[in-house]
Amino acid sequence: MKKRIAITMGDAGGIGPEISLKATLSEEVRALCEPVLIGDRNVFYEAATLLGLKLKDIEIIEPYRITNLTKGKPTEDSGRAAFFYVKKALDGCLKGEFHAMVTSPISKAALRAAGYPWAGHTEMLAELTGTKTYAMMLMGEGLRVLLVTTHLALRDVPNALTIERIYEKICLAAVAAEMLSIEDPLIGVSALNPHAGEEGLFGTEERELIKPAIEKAKRRGLKVEGPIPADVIFYLAKRGRLDIVVSMYHDQGLAPLKMIAFEKGVNFTVGLPIIRTSPDHGTAYDIAWKAVARCDSIIEAIRTASYLRLPHSQ
């Protein structure tokens, strides 16, 4: 029996309706799973007309109807709708109705306009499920990256790093490896500073924070190397020397990944009691509703969702 996978519309004014619809109707996805669209039915029909597609044999669940579709920018209504679509998919996963959920891009600005406090899907799903320990895991073209810090100003990153936080993310990298069915994974931990601090010449975070976290993870029995300079670690990972890279901050990890897998990057949240993946791109308002958005990344997210498994501890 094919796995049922919920695919949310995302922000209705962005490319979410187009890419989720194109992916759901693709032969590749239909052969892989039983996709279920969650979003505004009328918006999906309008997107189908734009793309010259027919909505046949597609299950659509509509937990919220958008009052006035505004294309190409975030609105309060699209932010509220996006929340209800995610909540419906999450509830279905928790009840066992879906094997996993795949989320199309949402807008932080739209969420805030609707009165929601979260920076994005990751924080929203963590709070809704009561998950305290979680991480963003991104992958594509053989590279797998887990982030220690996410949406922070660069100047705030050093102060946000602690031994415990880095250790926690290393442990979550091991959980991600289990979800991906990688046996005996080797985890590489990136340095924060150039040349891994050069023995304190360019910074002391490696010596005071990152190395102690790595040693603590090793005592737990994990295979970990580092801190490895950021200008080297991704080369090693791409060559297959490392299974997962633990990166200290957002752009340190995502810049190399997007360089090689911009159109096929996938994000999934480690630590949740459900499986959730998403394409590794945003709402792309500038090209929304112009019938030009590609669906490669969301198809890859659906494929990933189909084979990920929850760890035994959950």
Shape: globular
CA(first)-CA(last) distance: 23 Å
Any guess at the CATH architecture of the largest domain? 3-Layer(aba) Sandwich
Total DSSP E strands: 11
Q: β content, as a range?
A: 15-25%
Number of domains: 2
How are strands sequenced across the largest beta sheet?
3-2-1-4-11-10-5-6-9-7-8
Spans of 5+ residues with little confidence (pLDDT < 50)?
none
Integer average pLDDT: 94
- How would you classify the helix and strand content by structural class? alpha/beta
Q: Give the oligomeric state.
A: single chain
What is Rg? 20 Å
Give the topology string: H per helix, E per strand. Answer: EHHEHEHEHHEEHHEHEHEHEEH
Instruction: Tell me the helix content.
Output: 40-55%
CATH homology superfamily of the largest domain: Isopropylmalate Dehydrogenase
Largest sheet: 11 strands, mixed
Top CATH class of the largest domain: Alpha Beta
The tally of helices reads 12
Description:
The protein is an alpha/beta fold and 314 residues long. The mean pLDDT is 94. The two termini are 23 Å apart. The longest helix has 19 residues. It is 41% helix and 17% strand. It has two domains: 174 residues, Isopropylmalate Dehydrogenase (3-Layer(aba) Sandwich), CATH 3.40.718.10; 138 residues, Isopropylmalate Dehydrogenase.
